[in-house]
Design a protein that fits this description.
With 249 residues, the chain is α/β, with parallel strands linked by helices. It is 47% helix and 16% strand. It has helices spanning 16-27, 39-51, 69-80, 96-101, 103-131, 152-172, 205-215, 229-238, 241-244, and strands at 7-11, 31-36, 56-61, 85-88, 135-139, 178-184, 187-188, 203-204, 222-225. It has a seven-stranded parallel β-sheet, with helices on both faces. The protein has a two-stranded parallel ribbon with strand order 7-8. Helix 1 packs across helix 7 and helix 5 (103-131) packs parallel to helix 6 (152-172). The longest helix is centred in the middle third of the chain and has 29 residues, at 103-131. It starts with 6 loop residues before the first strand and ends in a 5-residue tail after the last helix.
Length: 249
């Protein structure tokens, strides 16, 4: 008995983790819709995914922060039909010192990492709950587990989106759909191009993508990528503030 291919929407499809996750879906023969701002880059990724086995790949040019999430979501449904999986993978690191002095910079970080993905998540959740099926996976970050001086505006936004997705997962309980926030640690992607990399705490996009893909099918509403970060962040959260504040983090 043959099964229909998964219908997958990836928001922020040009991000490093999203692109590698899309390759995993392509290998399964999924039907993919790639959404983002850079149409040329989306087309290039789409061509690659077709070669990797995707049964169909379409693109949608959307500015997630500027465009109305609910209207854009309804437009995607009207054009492409219902989705089985939705991955929200966009965001920006921003610059913490600038955000401390410039309210527009701080607002930009919060909009890209919380306000916009939150609106998209709520729109998707409404549709999934009505249908009684679907998997919503959103990329968070371990930075949201405890505020630290290096990136607390970004971390606060990621903490907010994690709480929202946990709440949606609770809303879905016993109704069929699932919602998961995946929290990567430092990952070698273009987003972290300016950082010094290496060491046991860094992961590849491929390692994180495996967790993201699996999260759409099984596991709890909060998953760390790689899994070792669950223990690492438990230890970080338990460090007394008097000690934590003296650490160069």
């Amino acid at each position: 008995m043959s099964h229909s291919p998964l219908r997958v929407l990836i928001l922020g499809a040009t991000s490093g983790i999203a692109e590698v996750t899309a390759r995993l879906y392509a290998a399964e023969g999924a039907r993919l819709v790639l959404a983002g701002r850079n149409a040329a880059r989306l087309q290039a990724i789409a061509a690659d995914l077709r070669l990797r086995g995707a049964s169909a790949v379409d693109i949608a040019q959307i500015d997630f922060v500027r465009d109305d999430a609910r209207q854009a979501w309804l437009g995607l449904l009207a054009t492409h039909g219902a989705f089985d999986h939705v991955l929200i993978a966009y965001g920006v690191l921003g610059d913490q010192p600038t955000a401390e002095q410039d309210s527009a910079a701080a607002e930009s970080i919060m909009a890209a990492n919380f306000t916009s993905p939150a609106q998209w998540s709520l729109a998707v959740a409404e549709d999934f709950e009505r249908r009684g099926s679907g998997s919503l996976v959103v990329l968070g970050s371990v930075a949201g587990d405890r505020g630290r001086r290096a990136n607390y505006v970004y971390g606060a936004a990621k903490a907010g989106i994690a709480a929202l997705i946990e709440g949606i997962a609770h809303r879905f309980a016993g109704k069929g759909p699932r919602a998961v926030v995946v929290k990567p640690g430092p990952t070698d992607t273009p987003m972290t191009a300016g950082m010094k990399k290496g060491g046991p705490l860094w992961a590849t996009a491929e390692q994180v993508a495996v967790v993201v893909r699996r999260a759409a099918d099984k596991g709890g509403p909060v998953q760390y990528a790689p899994a070792r970060w669950r223990l690492v962040m438990l230890i970080v959260r338990l460090i007394p503030s008097a000690i934590f504040n003296k650490m160069n983090l």
